[in-house]
Write a sequence for this structure.
Protein backbone atom coordinates (compact mmCIF):
# COMPACT_ATOMS: atom_id res chain seq x y z
CA UNK A 1 0.00 0.00 0.00
CA UNK A 2 1.57 3.31 -1.00
CA UNK A 3 1.93 5.75 1.84
CA UNK A 4 3.22 9.25 2.35
CA UNK A 5 5.50 10.93 4.80
CA UNK A 6 2.69 12.44 6.86
CA UNK A 7 1.39 8.92 7.58
CA UNK A 8 4.86 7.92 8.80
CA UNK A 9 5.03 10.98 11.07
CA UNK A 10 1.59 10.18 12.47
CA UNK A 11 2.76 6.62 13.15
CA UNK A 12 5.66 8.04 15.15
CA UNK A 13 3.22 9.93 17.36
CA UNK A 14 1.14 6.77 17.77
CA UNK A 15 4.20 4.75 18.82
CA UNK A 16 5.57 7.35 21.21
CA UNK A 17 4.64 5.44 24.41
CA UNK A 18 6.51 2.37 23.09
CA UNK A 19 9.61 4.44 22.41
CA UNK A 20 9.48 5.92 25.91
CA UNK A 21 9.23 2.43 27.36
CA UNK A 22 12.20 1.32 25.27
CA UNK A 23 14.25 4.29 26.46
CA UNK A 24 13.44 3.48 30.10
CA UNK A 25 14.39 -0.19 29.54
CA UNK A 26 17.73 0.85 28.04
CA UNK A 27 18.50 3.33 30.84
CA UNK A 28 17.85 0.60 33.45
CA UNK A 29 20.66 -1.48 31.96
CA UNK A 30 24.11 -0.60 33.30
CA UNK A 31 26.08 -0.34 30.06
CA UNK A 32 29.08 1.61 31.33
CA UNK A 33 31.93 1.31 28.87
CA UNK A 34 34.22 -1.34 30.41
CA UNK A 35 37.36 0.46 29.25
CA UNK A 36 36.46 3.89 30.66
CA UNK A 37 38.72 5.29 33.38
CA UNK A 38 37.35 4.16 36.74
CA UNK A 39 35.24 1.33 35.29
CA UNK A 40 35.98 -2.27 36.32
CA UNK A 41 35.53 -4.49 33.28
CA UNK A 42 34.31 -7.53 35.21
CA UNK A 43 31.61 -5.44 36.89
CA UNK A 44 30.12 -3.88 33.76
CA UNK A 45 30.97 -6.22 30.90
CA UNK A 46 27.91 -7.39 28.99
CA UNK A 47 25.80 -4.27 29.57
CA UNK A 48 26.32 -3.02 26.03
CA UNK A 49 25.29 -6.42 24.63
CA UNK A 50 22.20 -6.53 26.88
CA UNK A 51 21.09 -3.16 25.48
CA UNK A 52 21.47 -4.52 21.99
CA UNK A 53 19.50 -7.65 22.93
CA UNK A 54 16.61 -5.44 24.06
CA UNK A 55 16.93 -3.51 20.80
CA UNK A 56 17.07 -6.73 18.75
CA UNK A 57 13.48 -7.57 19.73
CA UNK A 58 12.34 -4.11 18.69
CA UNK A 59 14.34 -4.18 15.46
CA UNK A 60 12.75 -7.51 14.57
CA UNK A 61 9.31 -6.12 15.27
CA UNK A 62 10.18 -3.23 12.91
CA UNK A 63 10.86 -5.74 10.15
CA UNK A 64 14.62 -5.31 10.24
CA UNK A 65 17.00 -8.15 9.48
CA UNK A 66 19.39 -8.61 12.41
CA UNK A 67 23.17 -8.86 12.16
CA UNK A 68 25.52 -9.19 15.12
CA UNK A 69 29.08 -7.90 14.76
CA UNK A 70 31.42 -8.69 17.62
CA UNK A 71 35.13 -7.99 17.34
CA UNK A 72 35.06 -8.51 21.11
CA UNK A 73 32.60 -11.39 21.75
CA UNK A 74 31.54 -9.80 25.04
CA UNK A 75 30.69 -6.49 23.39
CA UNK A 76 28.27 -7.07 20.54
CA UNK A 77 27.12 -4.51 17.99
CA UNK A 78 23.70 -4.84 16.41
CA UNK A 79 22.90 -3.85 12.84
CA UNK A 80 19.26 -3.77 11.76
CA UNK A 81 18.89 -3.88 8.00
CA UNK A 82 15.84 -2.89 5.96
CA UNK A 83 16.40 -3.82 2.34
CA UNK A 84 15.32 -1.20 -0.17
CA UNK A 85 13.20 -1.83 -3.23
CA UNK A 86 16.21 -0.99 -5.37
CA UNK A 87 17.68 2.01 -7.12
CA UNK A 88 17.86 4.32 -4.08
CA UNK A 89 20.71 5.59 -1.92
CA UNK A 90 21.44 3.73 1.31
CA UNK A 91 21.56 5.32 4.76
CA UNK A 92 22.86 4.30 8.19
CA UNK A 93 21.51 5.73 11.44
CA UNK A 94 24.09 5.31 14.20
CA UNK A 95 23.93 5.36 17.98
CA UNK A 96 26.10 3.99 20.76
CA UNK A 97 24.77 2.03 23.73
CA UNK A 98 27.76 2.44 26.05
CA UNK A 99 27.74 5.19 28.68
CA UNK A 100 30.38 6.82 30.84
CA UNK A 101 30.46 5.85 34.54
CA UNK A 102 28.11 8.06 36.59
CA UNK A 103 29.46 10.94 38.66
CA UNK A 104 28.24 11.04 42.28
CA UNK A 105 25.99 7.97 41.79
CA UNK A 106 24.55 8.24 45.30
CA UNK A 107 23.28 11.75 44.75
CA UNK A 108 20.97 11.62 41.70
CA UNK A 109 17.47 13.17 41.89
CA UNK A 110 16.02 9.94 40.52
CA UNK A 111 17.58 7.85 43.32
CA UNK A 112 20.11 6.03 41.15
CA UNK A 113 21.65 6.71 37.73
CA UNK A 114 19.91 3.54 36.43
CA UNK A 115 16.49 4.31 37.89
CA UNK A 116 14.71 5.66 34.81
CA UNK A 117 12.19 8.22 36.01
CA UNK A 118 9.97 10.70 34.16
CA UNK A 119 9.51 14.17 35.66
CA UNK A 120 7.97 17.14 33.84
CA UNK A 121 8.29 15.58 30.42
CA UNK A 122 11.92 14.55 30.87
CA UNK A 123 13.32 11.09 31.44
CA UNK A 124 16.13 11.04 34.02
CA UNK A 125 18.88 8.46 34.06
CA UNK A 126 22.38 7.81 32.84
CA UNK A 127 22.73 7.62 29.09
CA UNK A 128 19.31 9.22 28.55
CA UNK A 129 20.81 12.07 26.54
CA UNK A 130 24.05 10.32 25.56
CA UNK A 131 22.55 8.52 23.75
CA UNK A 132 19.81 6.02 24.54
CA UNK A 133 17.06 8.47 23.52
CA UNK A 134 18.74 8.61 20.12
CA UNK A 135 18.86 4.84 19.75
CA UNK A 136 15.18 4.72 20.75
CA UNK A 137 14.41 7.43 18.18
CA UNK A 138 16.22 5.42 15.49
CA UNK A 139 14.00 2.44 16.27
CA UNK A 140 10.89 4.64 16.37
CA UNK A 141 11.60 5.94 12.87
CA UNK A 142 12.12 2.40 11.52
CA UNK A 143 9.02 1.08 13.29
CA UNK A 144 6.86 3.86 11.83
CA UNK A 145 8.07 3.01 8.33
CA UNK A 146 7.09 -0.60 9.00
CA UNK A 147 3.72 0.29 10.55
CA UNK A 148 2.69 2.32 7.51
CA UNK A 149 3.97 -0.17 4.96
CA UNK A 150 6.24 2.50 3.53
CA UNK A 151 8.67 1.50 0.80
CA UNK A 152 12.14 2.96 0.48
CA UNK A 153 14.17 2.41 -2.67
CA UNK A 154 17.48 2.52 -0.79
CA UNK A 155 18.54 0.34 2.14
CA UNK A 156 18.12 1.68 5.66
CA UNK A 157 20.45 0.40 8.37
CA UNK A 158 20.46 0.98 12.11
CA UNK A 159 23.94 0.67 13.63
CA UNK A 160 23.72 0.25 17.42
CA UNK A 161 27.32 0.15 18.53
CA UNK A 162 29.63 -0.34 21.52
CA UNK A 163 32.79 1.42 22.62
CA UNK A 164 32.14 4.98 21.48
CA UNK A 165 32.96 6.66 24.79
CA UNK A 166 36.55 5.41 24.63
CA UNK A 167 36.98 5.85 20.86
CA UNK A 168 37.05 2.08 20.36
CA UNK A 169 35.55 2.52 16.93
CA UNK A 170 37.45 -0.53 15.69
CA UNK A 171 35.19 -2.58 18.02
CA UNK A 172 32.09 -0.53 17.25
CA UNK A 173 31.25 1.68 14.31
CA UNK A 174 34.28 0.90 12.15
CA UNK A 175 33.77 -2.84 12.79
CA UNK A 176 30.22 -2.54 11.40
CA UNK A 177 31.41 -0.68 8.31
CA UNK A 178 34.16 -3.21 7.72
CA UNK A 179 31.75 -6.11 8.18
CA UNK A 180 30.03 -4.87 5.01
CA UNK A 181 27.51 -2.40 6.41
CA UNK A 182 28.83 0.46 4.35
CA UNK A 183 26.17 2.90 3.22
CA UNK A 184 26.08 5.94 0.94
CA UNK A 185 25.78 8.21 3.99
CA UNK A 186 25.31 8.12 7.75
CA UNK A 187 23.49 10.13 10.40
CA UNK A 188 25.11 9.83 13.83
CA UNK A 189 22.29 10.63 16.23
CA UNK A 190 24.31 12.18 19.10
CA UNK A 191 22.58 15.01 21.03
CA UNK A 192 22.53 18.23 18.98
CA UNK A 193 20.05 20.46 20.76
CA UNK A 194 22.56 22.98 22.05
CA UNK A 195 23.54 25.78 21.47
CA UNK A 196 20.38 25.83 19.34
CA UNK A 197 17.23 23.75 19.61
CA UNK A 198 17.56 20.38 17.86
CA UNK A 199 19.80 21.06 14.91
CA UNK A 200 22.05 19.40 12.36
CA UNK A 201 25.82 19.37 12.89
CA UNK A 202 28.08 18.52 9.97
CA UNK A 203 31.36 19.38 11.70
CA UNK A 204 33.16 18.74 14.98
CA UNK A 205 36.49 19.95 16.27
CA UNK A 206 39.49 17.65 16.53
CA UNK A 207 40.47 16.70 20.06
CA UNK A 208 43.86 16.07 21.65
CA UNK A 209 44.21 14.48 25.07
CA UNK A 210 47.70 15.14 26.39
CA UNK A 211 49.75 15.43 29.55
CA UNK A 212 52.52 17.74 30.65
CA UNK A 213 54.97 16.43 33.26
CA UNK A 214 57.30 18.51 35.39
CA UNK A 215 60.09 17.56 37.73
CA UNK A 216 61.15 19.53 40.80
CA UNK A 217 63.63 19.04 43.60
CA UNK A 218 62.25 18.02 46.95
CA UNK A 219 63.41 19.58 50.17
CA UNK A 220 62.05 20.30 53.66
CA UNK A 221 59.41 23.03 53.88
CA UNK A 222 61.67 24.88 56.28
CA UNK A 223 63.81 25.82 53.28
CA UNK A 224 61.02 27.75 51.58
CA UNK A 225 62.42 31.17 52.49
CA UNK A 226 65.91 30.28 51.23
CA UNK A 227 64.47 29.02 47.96
CA UNK A 228 62.46 32.19 47.20
CA UNK A 229 64.52 34.91 49.00
CA UNK A 230 66.04 37.44 46.58
CA UNK A 231 69.78 36.86 46.63
CA UNK A 232 69.31 33.41 48.17
CA UNK A 233 70.44 30.04 46.79
CA UNK A 234 67.10 29.58 44.96
CA UNK A 235 66.85 26.43 42.89
CA UNK A 236 70.05 25.08 44.40
CA UNK A 237 68.09 24.39 47.58
CA UNK A 238 64.81 23.12 46.21
CA UNK A 239 62.32 23.48 43.37
CA UNK A 240 58.59 23.16 43.86
CA UNK A 241 57.20 21.31 40.82
CA UNK A 242 53.69 22.34 41.82
CA UNK A 243 54.44 26.01 41.21
CA UNK A 244 56.20 25.20 37.93
CA UNK A 245 52.98 23.45 36.95
CA UNK A 246 50.97 26.56 37.80
CA UNK A 247 53.25 28.48 35.43
CA UNK A 248 52.57 26.01 32.62
CA UNK A 249 48.84 26.34 33.24
CA UNK A 250 49.17 30.12 32.93
CA UNK A 251 51.20 29.91 29.72
CA UNK A 252 48.65 27.63 28.10
CA UNK A 253 45.85 29.94 29.23
CA UNK A 254 47.66 32.68 27.28
CA UNK A 255 47.84 30.43 24.24
CA UNK A 256 44.16 29.62 24.64
CA UNK A 257 43.36 33.35 24.67
CA UNK A 258 45.40 33.78 21.48
CA UNK A 259 43.53 30.88 19.87
CA UNK A 260 40.25 32.52 20.86
CA UNK A 261 41.26 35.51 18.77
CA UNK A 262 43.06 33.79 15.90
CA UNK A 263 41.34 30.46 15.32
CA UNK A 264 37.87 30.51 13.90
CA UNK A 265 35.56 28.51 11.69
CA UNK A 266 32.25 29.71 10.25
CA UNK A 267 30.32 26.75 11.71
CA UNK A 268 31.61 27.24 15.29
CA UNK A 269 30.82 29.77 17.98
CA UNK A 270 33.68 32.28 18.39
CA UNK A 271 36.32 31.08 20.83
CA UNK A 272 35.39 27.41 20.63
CA UNK A 273 38.95 26.21 20.09
CA UNK A 274 40.28 25.90 23.60
CA UNK A 275 42.71 24.19 25.93
CA UNK A 276 41.23 22.74 29.13
CA UNK A 277 43.44 21.70 32.05
CA UNK A 278 41.22 18.96 33.49
CA UNK A 279 43.49 17.21 36.00
CA UNK A 280 46.35 18.71 38.01
CA UNK A 281 48.33 16.43 40.24
CA UNK A 282 51.41 17.31 42.22
CA UNK A 283 53.11 16.03 45.37
CA UNK A 284 56.49 15.30 46.93
CA UNK A 285 55.87 11.54 46.72
CA UNK A 286 53.74 11.71 49.87
CA UNK A 287 50.32 13.25 50.33
CA UNK A 288 51.55 15.94 52.72
CA UNK A 289 52.65 19.55 52.22
CA UNK A 290 55.85 19.50 54.36
CA UNK A 291 58.21 19.05 51.42
CA UNK A 292 58.64 20.79 48.09
CA UNK A 293 56.69 18.78 45.49
CA UNK A 294 59.11 17.03 43.19
CA UNK A 295 56.60 16.13 40.49
CA UNK A 296 53.59 17.66 38.77
CA UNK A 297 51.37 16.45 36.02
CA UNK A 298 48.60 18.29 34.17
CA UNK A 299 46.20 16.49 31.87
CA UNK A 300 44.58 18.50 29.08
CA UNK A 301 41.78 18.21 26.58
CA UNK A 302 42.08 20.62 23.66
CA UNK A 303 39.84 21.34 20.68
CA UNK A 304 41.27 22.43 17.35
CA UNK A 305 39.62 23.52 14.09
CA UNK A 306 38.58 20.70 11.75
CA UNK A 307 40.67 22.09 8.91
CA UNK A 308 43.93 22.24 10.90
CA UNK A 309 46.59 19.57 11.02
CA UNK A 310 46.88 17.63 14.27
CA UNK A 311 50.70 17.59 14.23
CA UNK A 312 50.78 21.34 13.67
CA UNK A 313 48.66 21.74 16.84
CA UNK A 314 51.19 19.63 18.78
CA UNK A 315 53.98 21.96 17.63
CA UNK A 316 52.01 25.08 18.56
CA UNK A 317 51.47 23.83 22.12
CA UNK A 318 54.98 22.51 22.68
CA UNK A 319 56.68 25.56 21.12
CA UNK A 320 54.61 27.90 23.27
CA UNK A 321 55.42 26.13 26.55
CA UNK A 322 59.07 25.46 25.77
CA UNK A 323 59.53 29.06 24.58
CA UNK A 324 58.45 30.31 28.02
CA UNK A 325 60.41 27.58 29.78
CA UNK A 326 63.64 28.90 28.23
CA UNK A 327 63.32 31.96 30.49
CA UNK A 328 63.12 29.85 33.63
CA UNK A 329 66.58 28.65 34.75
CA UNK A 330 65.25 25.40 36.23
CA UNK A 331 62.85 24.57 33.38
CA UNK A 332 65.52 25.38 30.80
CA UNK A 333 67.53 22.48 32.20
CA UNK A 334 64.57 20.30 33.18
CA UNK A 335 62.14 20.78 30.32
CA UNK A 336 58.45 20.04 30.66
CA UNK A 337 57.71 16.67 29.06
CA UNK A 338 54.70 16.12 26.79
CA UNK A 339 52.76 12.96 26.27
CA UNK A 340 50.24 13.07 23.41
CA UNK A 341 47.85 10.36 24.50
CA UNK A 342 44.92 10.33 22.11
CA UNK A 343 43.72 12.17 19.05
CA UNK A 344 40.05 12.10 18.07
CA UNK A 345 39.96 13.24 14.47
CA UNK A 346 37.60 16.08 13.54
CA UNK A 347 34.47 15.75 11.44
CA UNK A 348 34.35 18.08 8.50
CA UNK A 349 31.39 17.73 6.16
CA UNK A 350 30.30 20.84 4.22
CA UNK A 351 26.82 22.25 4.81
CA UNK A 352 25.91 21.74 1.15
CA UNK A 353 26.86 18.05 1.15
CA UNK A 354 23.73 16.10 0.05
CA UNK A 355 23.36 14.09 3.29
CA UNK A 356 23.57 17.29 5.37
CA UNK A 357 20.92 18.91 3.22
CA UNK A 358 18.76 15.76 3.38
CA UNK A 359 18.92 15.84 7.19
CA UNK A 360 18.24 19.59 7.30
CA UNK A 361 15.24 19.26 4.98
CA UNK A 362 14.02 16.17 6.84
CA UNK A 363 14.10 17.96 10.18
CA UNK A 364 12.50 21.12 8.76
CA UNK A 365 9.73 19.20 7.02
CA UNK A 366 8.95 16.86 9.90
CA UNK A 367 9.04 19.46 12.66
CA UNK A 368 7.78 22.52 10.80
CA UNK A 369 10.84 24.60 11.50
CA UNK A 370 13.60 26.39 9.61
CA UNK A 371 17.29 25.97 10.32
CA UNK A 372 19.47 29.01 9.65
CA UNK A 373 22.54 28.55 7.48
CA UNK A 374 25.66 28.18 9.64
CA UNK A 375 27.45 31.28 10.87
CA UNK A 376 29.25 32.24 14.09
CA UNK A 377 25.91 33.74 15.21
CA UNK A 378 24.12 30.47 14.51
CA UNK A 379 26.82 27.86 15.01
CA UNK A 380 26.06 24.31 13.95
CA UNK A 381 29.21 22.52 15.09
CA UNK A 382 28.77 19.46 17.28
CA UNK A 383 30.41 20.36 20.57
CA UNK A 384 32.06 17.00 21.19
CA UNK A 385 33.63 14.08 19.39
CA UNK A 386 31.54 11.39 17.70
CA UNK A 387 31.67 8.36 15.43
CA UNK A 388 30.86 10.66 12.48
CA UNK A 389 34.65 11.06 12.25
CA UNK A 390 35.04 7.34 11.54
CA UNK A 391 32.31 7.14 8.88
CA UNK A 392 34.11 10.02 7.19
CA UNK A 393 37.46 8.28 7.55
CA UNK A 394 35.90 5.26 5.83
CA UNK A 395 34.66 7.47 2.99
CA UNK A 396 31.03 7.63 4.14
CA UNK A 397 29.72 11.24 4.34
CA UNK A 398 28.24 11.75 7.79
CA UNK A 399 26.29 14.30 9.78
CA UNK A 400 25.29 14.47 13.45
CA UNK A 401 21.70 15.10 14.54
CA UNK A 402 19.77 13.71 17.47
CA UNK A 403 17.81 14.38 20.66
CA UNK A 404 19.28 15.75 23.86
CA UNK A 405 21.34 18.62 25.18
CA UNK A 406 25.05 17.99 25.04
CA UNK A 407 25.59 20.01 28.22
CA UNK A 408 23.76 17.27 30.17
CA UNK A 409 25.84 14.42 28.77
CA UNK A 410 28.29 12.85 31.25
CA UNK A 411 26.71 14.85 34.10
CA UNK A 412 24.88 14.03 37.29
CA UNK A 413 21.07 13.98 36.83
CA UNK A 414 21.37 13.45 33.08
CA UNK A 415 17.95 13.73 31.42
CA UNK A 416 16.31 14.10 28.04
CA UNK A 417 13.13 15.85 26.91
CA UNK A 418 10.74 13.20 25.65
CA UNK A 419 9.19 15.62 23.13
CA UNK A 420 12.61 15.98 21.61
CA UNK A 421 13.04 12.23 21.22
CA UNK A 422 9.86 12.13 19.14
CA UNK A 423 10.87 15.22 17.16
CA UNK A 424 14.24 13.66 16.40
CA UNK A 425 12.60 10.41 15.27
CA UNK A 426 10.41 12.40 12.88
CA UNK A 427 13.44 14.22 11.48
CA UNK A 428 15.29 10.92 10.99
CA UNK A 429 12.30 9.29 9.30
CA UNK A 430 11.88 12.27 6.98
CA UNK A 431 15.59 12.26 6.20
CA UNK A 432 15.45 8.55 5.34
CA UNK A 433 12.32 9.18 3.29
CA UNK A 434 14.06 11.85 1.23
CA UNK A 435 17.49 10.23 1.00
CA UNK A 436 16.36 6.66 0.31
CA UNK A 437 13.47 7.75 -1.89
CA UNK A 438 10.36 6.72 0.03
CA UNK A 439 6.91 6.06 -1.33
ZN1 LIG B 1 27.65 9.93 22.89
Amino acid sequence: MPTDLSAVLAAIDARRPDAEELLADLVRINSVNPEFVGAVRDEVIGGETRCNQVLAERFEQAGLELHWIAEDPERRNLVGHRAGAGGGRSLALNGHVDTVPPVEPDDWVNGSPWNAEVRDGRLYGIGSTDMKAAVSAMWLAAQALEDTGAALNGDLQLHSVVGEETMQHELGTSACIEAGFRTDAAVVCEPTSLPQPLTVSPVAAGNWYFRVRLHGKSTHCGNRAEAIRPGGPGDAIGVNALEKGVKVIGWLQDLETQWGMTKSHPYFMPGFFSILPGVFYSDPGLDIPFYFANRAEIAYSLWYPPDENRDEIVHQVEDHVLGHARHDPWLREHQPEFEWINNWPPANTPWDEPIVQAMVRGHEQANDTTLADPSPQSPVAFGAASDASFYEAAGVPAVVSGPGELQLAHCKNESVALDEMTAAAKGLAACAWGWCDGS
